[in-house]
Amino acid sequence: MALSDTTWGWLAVVASVLCFGSFGVPIKTKKVLEAKVDPIVFQSYKTFWVLVTSFISFTYNEFSYTPLGLVSGAFWVPAGCCFVLATNCIGLGVTQGLQNSLVIIVSFIWGTLIFREPTKNLGGAFGAIAMLMVGVVGMALAPSLFYKATPPPRPSSGDELERAVKNGGQGDHHDDHHEAPAVHHETHLITTTDFRGNVVSPDTHLQIGKRWIPKKPLGYAAAIFGGTWGGSIYAPLKIANKYGLKAGGISYVFSFGVGAVVVNSLMLTCYMLYVHYVTKKPLPGPQLRVMWLPGSLCGLLWSAGNYLSIYAIALLGYGTAYPAIQSNLIIGGLWAVALYRELKPKQIILWFCSAALAAGAIGLLAQMTG
Q: How far apart are CA 245 and CA 122, in angstroms?
């Protein structure tokens, strides 16, 4: 018996969830973290592979292009940079939980309220979204609960801080038998004071220009902006499909890839000018020796998820498919728990309970809008 379009659409959702839930894993690999790869550089690798893989669509479709791809690129590239930054600051599990929850809200608004896609039960769909949000918020907050803060570290000299930044926040590395400095003690991390006299450490703060920004609020801000802004990535695709443009459907991946490259190039150029003329710091390099594998893997996984999500949106509708695809936060959270040990036992229990609630809400949303 042949499968219906709806069944194929949900199979595409599941496969897309696996790809999107795993593409962020390379961001937190040890070599990438030690190399301190700039978010815009990491995003550039993703963008490159999105364009390269987009040519696959022409093996079974005629060449087509729409400038709407530039609009999608303008939404995707900044959101992608925010994802990398937030992952480095607050972890993979929290980033996907928070960013995806906002994507769900924005994409549901586009599909249901703006594009007027048919819904079996609008009240039930809003109830499912509310239920999903509760689960997602629980996953996002789990790492912050049951957390016991360590005593504040002592201030260190500027020279120590400079060496700590170069060594990844771990102080000096001595080869002789002299007594190790206090910076190696558990509660005596390398620190300095910022321009306001506050104690800062490379472990808890990120240097942007001449300022030291606390990682946690910076990460949450990046995730919030990325989710709010990135929730509209596929809205131009829906417009292309709605008006019957030749570049709609799966052919849209090429327009998307071109738009992403154009926007990425503009952002990279502006960022390089800012670094060179404003911060007076060395320009970030591509770091090919470190990034060729994790950058390529990240880009290929995202590209595969992108292909599958476009199929799912075409078969199920924007308001149904795109929110459901954001359940990839469950896969990302599993990676965060199992591989990177981002959560403690009590936090894991809360996270899994919240994930179960989110999964149930996604199933309910499918019933209300499918």
A: 29
> What pLDDT, in 10s, does the model give residues 229-284?
998 998 898 888 777 777 777 888 999 999 999 999 999 999 999 998 988 888 88
The closest of 6, 207, 221, 241 to 111, measured between CA atoms, is 241
Asked if residues 147 and 343 have their Cβ atoms less than 8 Å apart, the reply is no
pLDDT in tens, 97-115: 888 878 878 887 887 888 8
- Cβ-contact 317, 35 below 8 angstroms: no
Distance CA 121, CA 62 (A): 38
Residue of 46, 206, 136, 198 whose CA lies nearest to 361? 136
| Partners of 212 in beta bridges | 207
Q: What are the structure tokens assigned to 54, written together?
A: 């987009």
Q: Compute the distance between CA of residue 191 and CA of residue 210 in angstroms, rounded to an integer.
A: 15
Tokens for 33, please give them.
Answer: 């973290």
**What's the pTM?**
0.79
Are 97 and 86 contacting, i.e. CB atoms less than 8 angstroms apart?
no
Rg (CA), the chain: 22
